[in-house]
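Quick start: read one record
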Amino acid sequence: MTFHAGAMFKVAITYYATAMTTSMRLDIVGYCEACILRDLKVAGRCSEVMIKNGWIEKPPEASDCKQM
């Protein structure tokens, strides 16, 4: 369920971005921007929960140059 909820939030981000780019009203653009930021937080939290429980793998990360 967590995977599906996260996927739905990611789809919603795409829809809000499409609405934001096609709208001429600034109030709608601002609303879509706020919704995208909120949904990014929720989708990120879903990913964190799934990684913590071992349901998905952690994506590869760049090496830290400061440790070398």
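The helical segments are 2-22, 26-52.
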